[in-house]
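User: For a benchmark we're assembling, each entry needs the component sequences followed by a predicted structure for the full assembly. Here are entry 17's components. Please fill in the structure.
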Amino acid sequence: MSATTLLVESSLVLSFFFIFLFLMYYKYLSVKTEVDVAALNENYYDYSSYLREKKKGGGAISPHSFIMNDSKSIGIRYLITSLIFFFIAGTFGVIMRVSLVEPQPTLFAHREVIYDILTTEHAILMIYMWAIGSALGLAYYLIPKFINMKSDRYGNASSWGYWIWLMGGLFILFSRTSTRWYYYPPLALQLNPYGAGAMNWLAVIGLEFIMIGVTIAAIVIVRNIIYERSDSMPLSKMPLFVWSVLFTLIMFLASAPFLMTAMVMLFYDFFNPVFFTGSSSSPLYFTELFWVWGHPIVYIAILPQFGLIYEIIPKFTGNKVYSYSSGVIALGLLLPLSELVWGHHLMESGLGIEWGLFFSTASFLVVIPSAITVFNYIGTLWTSEKIRLTIPMLFVINGIMDFVFGGITGVLTAILPFNEQTHGTYWVTGHFHFVFMGITVGIAFAAIYMIWPSLTGGRIYSRRLAGWHFAFTSVGSMIMSMGWVVGGFMGMPRFVSGYFARYMVYQDVAILGGVIIGIGQLFFLANLMISTAKAPQVEPSNVFEEVYRKAEISGGE
Amino acid sequence: MIGKTGIVLGVLIMLLSGLMLVFMFDAPTQSGGGLADPSNLPVKGYMNITLYADAGGWNYSHGAINPNLYFPLYYVINFTVIEEDNLPHTLTINQGPTETASSLTLLSTGQITQSPGHVSKVSYEFFKAGIYTYWCVIHPTTMVGQIEINSTAGNNTTAATVSSTSNVMIHSFESAHDLSILVYSDLSQILGSIKAMTYMVF
Amino acid sequence: MSEKNHNNKLKAEALWIVGFMVVLAFAAGLNFYITSQSDFSIATKMSGSNQIPKNSTPIIVDGYQWAWSFTYYNASGKQTSVDNLNITVNHTYTFIITSTAGSQSNAVIHDLYIPQFGIQVYAVPGQNNTITFTPVKTGTFVLECVEYCGYEHYLMRGYVTVVA
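Assistant: Structure for entry 17:
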């Protein structure tokens, strides 16, 4: 075959390919126009929401949500993805916990770095893919109904945000990095398995992608809340969940640039180390930049769930939220205060007493809004005549209790001498697992159980399985975090694949708790599979959204 | 149809969790295929070897192409690589008779610059006996040869000068780039292959 | 729910919040009080204004991947020990801590922690941090690295022996 023949043949094949592409595009356009017209006639604001509600079962989990760009479909995308990542990262967590059963490395003997990889992946995926992902998913899913959205625009941008976020998560997963979730250089720059893992540069890009994706989602949601809110709903009557999402995302947009800048500089340092490891710079510059973002992120991971608690309690007590205004003020106060406390993660890095006292006092201040929120919950429960202890309500009560435990263990570390004793130990791990297991995981599952009929197209979950899920999660997290808190106070260091034998009892208690949590999540999976296999039993609607369908009812009701 | 979706999602979650766990277990736990020199190795002596880097093969126009090299154990081998053509090359070694992915790049494309006659040097001490492969990641089919490391010193040495045993306990690489070899070897390999692709396109 | 009941609970809520703030203020005050004590010491960057206390013995601590080395001078000259520190009870010591490159050629951030002494200080490349402490009991205590620093981070630990 001569070169000319080859050229002619390949040109022909290419032409056919392009003609085929054109036909596909023509077909797509005509179908879309048809659906657009139908949607317009039926008074839907765009074709995807028309398709979803008319053809595809109305907001249920299905692969269709990955190609349709209305808010609800995007919410389902986020929920599905974050659930998948929750189970992936959870498996890592259970396995690495089991590997600590003896003081010497057992499961990962002679390849201890696997433990570090699992820990890092567990942390990054849980925070950025599960906590942020599930919060964004619930926000996308619930907010259109909560604010009676006028029109559902910018779905395309939201879709881009989702895919970029997902790509970032996959990058981090595939990078198998063993830097900690805070990427401290120079370790993050040490590109071999003895340091941060050969592919850590991919994790840096991945985190940057996640931030870009979440930024897009944040802008779209904030815009929707401000501009697309129903005219019958002034800000003063906006549901507390919407307030919490609004504050969360503004907090995100205010603090994310610090991390994004730091990540770009860190990536530059791979090639030309000037920013953090140069002769006139210090790796501590990065740690400061990171924690300006790193402290707000922990509020970003729990604030939407705080709002959900405000929404769930009235449903099962028949009572208004105790104080709507103090709820909004408390959520809003966290916004400026959380930006002032980054230094309490770095008190042992040589800040000295003066700066240490500044940050520790600021950390005391940031507790006050959280306390107001908790007292508000307790007030709501207290003034109600009857509390129905359904599964979501159990998760809420457990979450409030866990948050009190986590809050107290957290605020104690703000005391300088106490910080010297507990920083870098399992005390801190226990503190944030109290909060994350109780609030982030527990309330997200409570909300998923509440919108279960909508998610599954009219199925109801098995109360028995959900009860086991709740019991295992709450008991397991209590055992695990308690073991850590006590062991950490005795000086048990975090992030080690082997430890002094004196800490074995605390580690083994924590392993017991961790395995219980792991088994508990299997009940959730079983529930999902069993209940969706049955025929639909109820209307695909849920108590969350039905309340806000009626425009006149709003606020905390 | 939602029924199937729920089950598929559940199975997918379990499958992906297991798959990702296996993927993490498979993470590299050592760099350079375990060939990076540990510190404080005993040094029995020094040997010099010169290789000419040419896309047609190592030492393409200098005697036998891709010569088999024989070195004794615990000798510091001073590699001198001289660029012959203006193509990018690397000097990469790995254990075993053929090329494997877990390898150590002694000289990267950045160090063997693409100007003919450029001399780059690196020292490496073999601390495990056996068959090794030395190759160029850009030209893995043509530029590949074998190294045999004998545990008995001084046998079958080719193209090498045995110098007297010295008392130096810790050896260091001659090249000023010794740090970057260890630390950035993986990154430079990737960059090297990207560069090679660019050369193939243009 | 009656209006009276609600008002009672409003009082309780206000009381809680005020009580909580009092507890916080007490904790913050305690914080200021303890840190003003002369025997309190926290990791501080060494600079012109921050010098080693006169009555204390300096110990130069060097963290590298993956061990701690302690260097100090006593009657028999310069002493160096790795992952092991022998000190005397009721004597004041000052750690001067930094991080250097070890066998892996990378100086990274470490964090020296002696739980029973309640002291902790970062080892940062290119920076000297100081912390002062006085052991008051004899015995063997543990020291650990609590900032992840690579493959064998968990082995970066050792013992402090306090003798009479």
